[in-house]
Design brief:
about 80 residues, coiled coil
């Protein structure tokens, strides 16, 4: 009886150890994913700032295309 209780106790200890190891592995992977997401967020914020800067610089240079009439192709007479 005592031997079977010891065997059961050892099994439970091994299971506990394996479960803890699994949780530690999952925890490390989640930390890695969080770091990667933070790095991606930082890159996205940088890209958004760059795009906003480009938009603000180019705001006065935009030309409406609806009133531009093009007769013939771009490779027509006066162009060449």
């Amino acid at each position: 009886m005592a031997q079977s209780i010891r065997a059961l106790s050892n099994k439970l200890d091994r299971m506990n150890h394996d479960i803890n190891q699994g949780f530690m592995s999952v925890s490390h992977r989640l930390e890695s994913v969080e770091k990667r997401l933070e790095a991606m967020e930082a890159r996205m914020n940088t890209m958004e700032a760059r795009m906003a800067g480009m938009e603000s610089r180019g705001a006065g240079m935009e030309v409406p295309m609806d009133n531009m009439e093009m007769e013939g192709s771009m490779l027509g007479g006066p162009v060449l």
